[in-house]
Write a structure and sequence with these properties.
With 339 residues, this protein is α+β, with helices and mostly antiparallel strands. It has 7 helices and 14 strands. Helix 1 packs across helix 2. The longest helix has 13 residues. It catalyses: a uridine in RNA = a pseudouridine in RNA.
Amino acid sequence: MTDKEIKEFKEYRLKVSENHDLETRLDKFLATQIEDTSRTKIKEAIKENYITVNGENEKPSYPIEEGDLIEAQLPIPKPPEATPEEMELDIVYEDDALLVVNKKAGTVVHPAHGNWSGTLVNGLLWHTDNLSEPEEDTIRPGIVHRLDKDTSGLLVVAKDDQTHRTLSSYFETKDIERTYWAIVWGTPDEKEGTITGNIGRDPHNRQKMTVREGDKGKEATTHYKVLEYFDHLSLLELKLETGRTHQIRVHLADNNLWVFGDQKYGGDSVRYGSNTGSRRSMFKNLFKALPRQCLHAKTLGFEDPQTGEQMQFDSELPDDFAHVLQMLRDNCKPEQLYS
């Protein structure tokens, strides 16, 4: 990596606690704690003396110990420019200022570490020459908000910088309506309710988010409503006041309502009810048919930045989500839960 390829360095300070897997190799530990990196890159940084333990240079094989202070300066390569790529897009609305797209599950929204091609942005650049670029060196033209890779649903995309600023302000002032549908394990005690809890990076696994106590993390609020319930599962409608990373998945998991199929947060195994016989076989087949979180951004509403009129969009459930839902309706008849 040459100096010209380096945009900047990012600094990290990590203190090893008794909760960590002690005696783990230094390179393996850091690869699990720092986003968008790998053991190979960690080894290179250690070799170039960008990483120290208690102020000393150590080998990648150094076994971490409780109390170790690890300091790292990792070079951040300047990201390549996003390029147009032909792909099928589900455009549900488009005018001169914006478009609304129904993102497929499995599609990353914009280029980033490990996904420099095949993203929604690459497809959008093929679809149109007009996308906003509100920041210099951006690899996210047009992108106002995001969905996780394996979450499907509606996104609004800006075609010019003024529209981008206006749409972004809607999210900041909570003047945009978003509803999600999710199938979850379990049933809430109340048919409707609100989940709160600050969300921040999981200190034990930097690839995950978690609910943090006190003033740690960022404030997050999720409203839910039970649309249908089954034998130990529910179909929920969810509305966000805030847009934290993995917010719905983290809030639900923290309340023992894991999103069905969510491999990162524990929804990819039978959490409630028997796990034998035909029921076990059914869920095994459903996990295979839907190898992702059963979460869909179903509706999107906002004021047209040009005319001031209210715009409202709805979307059909993707086939894998609809299949799971129908199987639950056919095979998991519930008892009466709510009056």
